[in-house]
Amino acid sequence: MTVAILVGVLVAGGVYLMMQRSLVRIVFGVSLLSHAANLLLLSAGVLAWRQEPLSDRTDLASTADPLPQAFVLTAIVITFAITILVLGFAVIGHNDDTHHAPETGEDHDA
Quick one: which of 99, 81, 95 has its CA closest to 31? Predict the structure, then answer.
């Protein structure tokens, strides 16, 4: 129940931040949503502690499922790459809202 509430809070915070105008807040919102997705993927597996998936040490019924862990690791790498890309866009275009286009002398009233 605690994990479900935490996922809900992270999703709510991520959606709130993504609705803001600042690109940095949007990046933080995407990162919160990715953390929520990672927790959801890990909670899809068993929450109780299980043993390592080594066939010579333990039986297969008591071993952990490595697939959700692989999904989470892949999601972390993808989120890191997207975060770096969007933060780069934020640095490049940080003055887009404050600067006006230069006057060209053309008249567009016609």
Answer: 81
